[in-house]
């Protein structure tokens, strides 16, 4: 049977409705705007950029046995840090799997927004997702699927927080953040305020103070002082993010304040390994160095 773009389009529409209905609480998690506050109990599997690498996504799901564990009643969260498609020809399949997981296990799957799911004014370029969709499904069905995915992106979370421990987002610490509400409602304050742009696009830089324009053309390069101020503002100790390719799947920056995860392999990135994190949410982590034993590379 030929794969149908209409199936993906309809799935994206259903998941967008699920996300739109997640107000107040999702299972044991609290929802404020586009911020989800995870409970300090159970475990979380944290997945960085996938970028259309279906094999890496399948590896993570097999190795963690996520579906079997959730169906068995385990208190387990699967947190994606964004960048599901682009840069990989299996982007349509990755989207289908990720969205199906959210549909089947809505109280256990958290979908964060990456710069490749950004608003139109700061969407990553080159943006090849629509071409992969049209190659897979044909022009009309591919474009319908793309339209529904674009609509879905507006409902993705900006950040996930485990109070007193971890804050998870795609790119970087907003350099002008004044409150947790600024993070939760960054999507509504864009583009008048730069919080959303910096969450999606920024990168940590060593040896600087403050924040400077990024080589990426959006977001900022930010120093350890920005990270410390951000963590204090949101009530966390460690920032877990994706966005940057890492040679060995992960890296630690700013004296242990930041952990970067990259969860896909192969061109155009050519990293030697990919990585994800599985961690107990009841543990209070004061440094990314304390997270290293819970990082899984492949």
List the helices and strands and how they pair.
Blueprint: H1 5-20, E1 24-26, E2 29-32, E3 35-37, E4 43-47, H2 54-64, H3 66-71, E5 76-80, H4 91-104, E6 109-111, H5 129-137, H6 139-153, E7 159-162, E8 166-168, H7 180-184, H8 186-189, H9 195-201, E9 203-204, E10 211-213, E11 220-222, H10 224-234, E12 238-241, E13 250-253, E14 258-261, E15 275-280, E16 295-297
Parallel strand pairs: 3-7, 4-5, 5-6, 8-12, 9-11, 12-14
Antiparallel strand pairs: 1-2, 2-3, 4-15, 7-8, 10-11, 13-14, 15-16
Helix pairs in contact: 1-4, 1-6, 5-6
What characteristics describe this protein?
Purple Acid Phosphatase, chain A, domain 2, alpha/beta, five-stranded mixed β-sheet, 298 residues
General description of the model:
The chain is an alpha/beta fold and 298 residues long. It has a single domain (5-297), classed as 4-Layer Sandwich (Purple Acid Phosphatase, chain A, domain 2), CATH 3.60.21.10. 49% of the residues are buried. The protein has an 8-stranded mixed β-sheet with strand order 1-2-3-7-8-12-14-13. 33% of the residues lie in helices and 20% in strands. The protein has 10 helices and 16 strands. β10 (211-213) and β11 (220-222) form a beta hairpin.
Give the number of domains.
1
What is the strand content?
15-25%
Mean residue pLDDT? 97
Task: Report the sheet with the most strands, covering strand number, pairing sense and barrel closure.
Answer: 8 strands, mixed
The largest sheet has its strands arranged as: 1-2-3-7-8-12-14-13
CATH topology category name: Purple Acid Phosphatase, chain A, domain 2
Gyration radius, in Å? 18 Å
Order of helices and strands: HEEEEHHEHEHHEEHHHEEEHEEEEE
Task: Supply the CATH class.
Answer: Alpha Beta
The CATH H-level superfamily is Metallo-dependent phosphatases
Quick one: how many beta strands?
Answer: 16
Number of helices: 10
Briefly note the structural class of the backbone. alpha/beta
Q: What's the overall geometry?
A: globular
Pick out the low-confidence regions: none
CATH architecture: 4-Layer Sandwich
Report the helical percentage: 25-40%
Distance linking N and C termini: 33 Å
